[in-house]
């Protein structure tokens, strides 16, 4: 077997000449075919002054800019491609390490001596086959999509054969060589692609040379690997060692040819080659390689272990020397990367410099154009001066014609014609004002174009007015309507409610606000994308608009919140029926392209009465409170705001205030009790769940249900979680300091804390403050929290387990977590919900409990049954295979003193009173 090392001016429209007015051209206005530049038009002058020089400059500079840009881009591509080559080399190196380890084991078995001896001789006693595999897999994972086709599947198949022990050394050598060729070919192909891209670039001689050095380094690596393998087949033969001598000679020649090129490369590559070729390991190895290539090396017999040791030692020298070849490839890759980066920077700088030069040239060209433009502005200035005089009422003087560009000459002539027409109109107006109807001036025709121009002006003016009205209408609509659904927006809602409340106070009619909040919209939006979410909101808006009464006000307040304002309802019954009708139409599946998505809704209703002095914000706030109660009651409901809801909110606010003050005082009145969790088989306590209680000032003992829901409505629950964590971990530290036997402590974590992104940091701070081992802490997360944001939860759990903390899923079975979700979560315990344990008393053994237990064991996690109430349940759960038990039958929550004295000596498990 071979041991390998691889790895607003608009021109007037052209019109037909007037048939009733024929004007002779002014004297001197006749045109000839060829005119001097001074008589040419403005366009031609500007074309000569600007366009032609800029065009010439642009054509010449664009080619240079393109060349510099292409070179910089290709150099950047080389820089971007080097990491892939580096990763391929790393995979190849790790793969060769794996093949060496496997080969050493196979040869050791062939020669009849144990693995540690050969591994120590080869210098790899600290690496096992499993470790070599893991190193290969780690590097392969970094390669990702750049993995050569067929390599991963071939590696899996080869490992299976190795594990099965069915491979002979020669077969293993052939299979490892085949996969190594795949890696080497992929490296060479990518390198050749880079060389092809660089070949046509200018100023890239250094980069091309560094790429040739990298190619030579790759050739040297391939030759060195092949030389080591062929020598191994001669020194430790399995089949036909003589056939390897000619191949070994070719390897020596190829390595020497690559070395000649590398020795002249200069820089780090040449120095690395010198270190390789001049190393003691390489010289000693090459001496025996030359002997083996000449046929003068006799392999040791497979039965003589002592005779094989020198050959193995030589192979070790070759392996040690061969490692320098990978360093050689790394040095060549670094040189290529540096040359490509230099080429990129140089061409980028030249590109910028050339761009600045072109801009300067363009500026110079524009300056020349301005000088030429002066020849145009002078006659135009004369025309402007005369126009100002006409505008001031002076119609006597005319503009000189025949001076300046063609266009100014034509404009001057037209201006003189207009002035003459104005004189005629002035004379006709004076004649009419003086009632001089026999004045011959009245018989002179007025020019017809002026009439048509006035008509066109009226048309343009009327069109502008219509466009202005339409724009105002659109702006008003945008200010009062939601852009996505077309419904009224929050601003329009407030304005409408102000008017509706005023009407209700005058008429005495009932006004109801139905606050609609969609259920599970975030999940649908995250699952199917924001496009699907927008489609759902549009369809829900259409359904609400069509499902309400005529005259009802429908609006989208924002996000997934909608509002219906209904006037003139009979009372709560009619409002409830309207809400249920809206729920039914919302609950129908929404079709988004080829998908059918179901989203529910919760509705809160608030009324405004005649004797109430309500404001829109107050009415909306009450409806919002009602919809929150609907969600707390299970969603999909219509809830009516009443005084009891307000009272409950007042009580909750008082609880929040007192709890806030207690936490500010360092946990004043808060204390922990502990409920044991015992081993199902032995009854020995294995952990205790820390549960918080509160001796509230002026109230007395409060159970968690009295204050935990209030805390969960805000970030107060995070502070409470941190207090429980700190207290439980401090108790662990005291047990450790006193030398008492320690048990694990489980702490429940709220969903808000888990999704806040602060949990891992808070837990780590609590552990550091207590100075305990993280492995004694278990964090319990309810299953329903997992479904809120699975990606965020999974990331948080990974960070927690990285700290060494154990994680348990509490109330498992109530959140409908799919198996696919469970496979993406790294947990240590599943706690079966008590609702499934209750079935054991009624129906005997529950198949669902058994299935969950077997599922947990298949996933490698411990299964804990909660809510054990009877001895029968304990026996059945033990037989099913649950690992641990918890419940009132085992023990109720105990104070610290009772926990330390539990259980009594007379029984491993005592049923609590």
Describe this structure in words.
With 913 residues, this protein is α/β, with parallel strands linked by helices. The chain has four domains: 68-353; 395-446, no CATH class; 481-641, 2-Layer Sandwich (Alpha-Beta Plaits), CATH 3.30.70; 670-900, EAL domain (TIM Barrel). The chain is 62% helix and 10% strand. It is built from 29 helices and 16 strands. The strands form three sheets. An eight-stranded mixed beta barrel has the order 8-9-11-12-13-14-15-16, surrounded by six helices. A five-stranded mixed β-sheet has the order 2-3-1-6-7, with helices on both faces. A hairpin with a 5-residue loop joins strand 8 and strand 9. Helix 1 runs antiparallel to helix 3, helix 4 runs antiparallel to helix 5 and helix 10 packs parallel to helix 11 (406-433). The longest helix is centred in the middle third of the chain and has 87 residues, at 305-391. It is flat. It starts with 41 loop residues before the first helix and ends in a 13-residue tail after the last helix.
Distance between the termini: 73 Å
Q: Assign a percent range to the helix content.
A: 55-70%
Shape: flat
What percent of residues are in strands?
Answer: 5-15%
Radius of gyration: 45 Å
Low-pLDDT segments, ≥5 res? 1-35, 115-121, 454-459, 905-913
Give the overall pLDDT as a whole number: 77
Number of helices: 29
**Largest sheet composition:** 8 strands, mixed, barrel
Number of strands: 16
The structural class is alpha/beta
**How many distinct domains?**
4
- How is the largest sheet built, in terms of strand order? 8-9-11-12-13-14-15-16
């Amino acid at each position: 077997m071979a041991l390998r090392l691889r790895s607003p001016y608009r021109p007037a429209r052209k019109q037909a000449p007037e048939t009733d007015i024929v004007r002779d051209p002014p004297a001197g206005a006749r045109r000839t075919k060829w005119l001097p530049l001074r008589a040419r038009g403005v366009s031609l002058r500007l074309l000569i002054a600007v366009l032609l020089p800029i065009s010439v400059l642009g054509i010449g500079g664009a080619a240079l800019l393109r060349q510099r840009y292409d070179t910089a881009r290709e150099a950047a591509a080389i820089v971007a491609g080097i990491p892939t080559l580096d990763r391929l080399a790393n995979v190849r190196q790790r793969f060769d390490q794996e093949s060496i380890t496997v080969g050493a084991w196979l040869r050791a078995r062939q020669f009849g001596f144990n693995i540690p001896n050969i591994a120590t001789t080869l210098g790899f006693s600290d690496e096992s086959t499993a470790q070599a595999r893991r190193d290969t897999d780690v590097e392969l994972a970094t390669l990702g999509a750049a993995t050569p086709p067929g390599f991963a599947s071939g590696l899996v198949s080869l490992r299976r054969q190795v594990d099965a022990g069915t491979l002979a050394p020669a077969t293993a050598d052939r299979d490892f060589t085949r996969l190594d060729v795949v890696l080497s070919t992929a490296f060479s192909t990518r390198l050749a692609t880079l060389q092809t891209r660089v070949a046509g670039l200018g100023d890239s001689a250094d980069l091309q040379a560094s790429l040739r050095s990298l190619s030579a380094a790759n050739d040297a690596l391939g030759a060195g690997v092949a030389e080591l393998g062929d020598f191994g087949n001669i020194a430790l033969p399995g089949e036909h060692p003589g056939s390897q001598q000619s191949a070994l000679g070719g390897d020596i020649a190829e390595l020497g040819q690559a070395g000649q090129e590398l020795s002249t490369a200069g820089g780090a590559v040449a120095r690395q080659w010198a270190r390789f070729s001049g190393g003691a390991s390489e010289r000693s190895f090459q001496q025996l390689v030359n002997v083996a290539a000449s046929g003068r090396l006799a392999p040791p017999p497979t039965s003589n272990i002592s005779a094989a040791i020198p050959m193995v030692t030589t192979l070790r020298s070759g392996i040690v020397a061969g490692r320098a070849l990978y360093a050689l490839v790394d040095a060549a890759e670094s040189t290529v990367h540096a040359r490509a980066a230099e080429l990129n920077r140089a061409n980028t700088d030249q590109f910028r410099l050339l761009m600045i030069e072109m801009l300067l040239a363009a500026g110079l060209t524009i300056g020349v154009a301005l000088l030429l433009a002066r020849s145009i502005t002078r006659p135009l200035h004369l025309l402007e001066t005369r126009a100002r005089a006409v505008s001031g009422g002076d119609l006597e003087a005319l503009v000189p014609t025949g001076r300046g560009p063609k266009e100014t000459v034509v404009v001057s002539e037209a201006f003189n014609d207009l002035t003459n027409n104005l004189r005629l109109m002035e004379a006709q107006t004076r004649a009419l004002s003086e009632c001089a109807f026999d004045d011959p001036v009245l018989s002179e025709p007025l020019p017809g174009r002026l009439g048509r121009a006035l008509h066109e002006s009226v048309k343009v003016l009327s069109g502008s007015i219509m466009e202005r009205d339409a724009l105002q209408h659109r702006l008003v609509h945008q200010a009062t309507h939601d852009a996505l659904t077309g419904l009224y927006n929050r601003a329009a809602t407030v304005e409408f409610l102000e008017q509706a409340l005023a009407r209700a106070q005058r008429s005495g009619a009932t006004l109801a606000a139905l606050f609609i909040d969609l259920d599970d919209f975030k999940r649908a939006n995250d699952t199917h994308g924001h496009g699907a979410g927008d489609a759902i909101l549009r369809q829900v808006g259409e359904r609400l608009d069509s499902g309400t009464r005529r005259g009802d006000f429908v609006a989208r307040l924002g996000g997934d919140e909608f509002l219906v304002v209904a006037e003139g309802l009979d009372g709560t019954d009619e409002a409830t029926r309207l809400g249920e009708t809206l729920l039914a139409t919302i609950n129908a599946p929404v079709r988004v392209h080829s998908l059918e998505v179901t989203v529910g809704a919760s509705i809160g209703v608030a009324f405004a009465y005649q004797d109430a002095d309500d404001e829109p914000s107050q009415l909306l706030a009450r409806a919002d409170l009602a919809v929150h109660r609907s969600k707390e009651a299970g969603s999909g409901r219509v809830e009516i705001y009443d005084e009891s809801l307000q009272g409950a909110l007042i009580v909750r606010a008082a609880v929040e205030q007192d709890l806030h003050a207690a936490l500010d005082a360092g946990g004043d009145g808060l204390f922990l009790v502990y409920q044991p969790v015992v081993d199902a088989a032995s009854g020995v306590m294995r952990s205790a769940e820390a549960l918080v209680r509160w001796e509230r000032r002026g109230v007395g003992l409060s159970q968690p249900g009295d204050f935990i829901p209030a805390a969960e409505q805000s970030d107060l629950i995070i502070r409470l979680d941190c207090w429980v964590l700190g207290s439980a971990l401090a108790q662990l530290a005291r047990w450790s300091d006193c030398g008492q036997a320690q048990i694990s402590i489980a702490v429940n974590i709220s969903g808000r804390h888990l999704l806040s992104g602060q949990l891992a940091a808070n837990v780590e701070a609590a552990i550091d403050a207590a100075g305990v081992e993280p492995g004694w802490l278990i964090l319990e997360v309810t299953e329903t929290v997992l479904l809120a944001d699975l990606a965020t939860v999974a990331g948080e759990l990974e960070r927690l387990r990285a700290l060494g903390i154990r994680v348990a899923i509490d109330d498992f079975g109530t959140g409908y977590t799919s198996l696919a979700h469970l496979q993406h979560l790294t947990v240590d315990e599943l706690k079966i919900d008590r609702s499934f344990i209750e079935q054991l008393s009624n129906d005997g053994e529950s198949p669902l409990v058994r299935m969950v237990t077997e599922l947990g064991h298949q996933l490698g996690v411990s299964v804990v049954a909660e809510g054990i109430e009877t001895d029968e349940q304990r026996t059945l759960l033990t037989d099913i295979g649950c690992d641990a038990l918890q419940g009132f039958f085992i023990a109720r929550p105990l104070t610290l003193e009772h926990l330390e004295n539990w259980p009594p000596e007379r029984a491993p498990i005592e049923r609590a009173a």
